[in-house]
């Protein structure tokens, strides 16, 4: 669960970078995706606290995997972030032991896969979807 919190914190940070360089026509989409990551992070923090764990706090900054300099690289970063988030949620589903947490993880995996497909479609990537979202080898 703690790894998923870290992943969501990194996604929130990355969406700040994406917002700075994204096409202005995508401002609402970027804001919606950022809010989704914040909501899922907040839910994970509550779940981990309820489980007696100490959730990690967000770092001041996170490493971005490549330079973001324009709307195209911003969209590429968004697609990458959603792919990375899907990998984390797939692992989350494999590791948790309650139906509630599995459902939470599957919802997170599904949401990340849908957002990622949207960004890949906007970039003209074909196929925009993966047969097995969250599979680090696909």
At the fold tier of CATH, the topology name is Ferritin
The count of β-strands is 0
Q: Helical element count?
A: 4
Classification by helices and strands: mainly alpha
How big a fraction of the residues is strand? under 5%
Total count of domains: 1
**Mean pLDDT across all amino acids:** 96
State the major sheet.
none
From the alpha carbons, calculate the radius of gyration and give it in angstroms.
15 Å
Termini Cα gap = 23 Å
Keyphrases for this structure?
138 residues, globular, Ferritin, mainly alpha, 4 helices, single chain
Blueprint of the fold:
Elements: H1 2-21, H2 27-50, H3 71-95, H4 99-123
Your description of this structure?
This protein is mainly α. The chain has one domain (2-123): Ferritin. Helices cover 68% and strands 0% of the residues. It contains 4 helices and no strands. Helix 1 (2-21) packs antiparallel against helix 2 and helix 1 (2-21) runs antiparallel to helix 3 (71-95). It is globular and about 40 Å long.
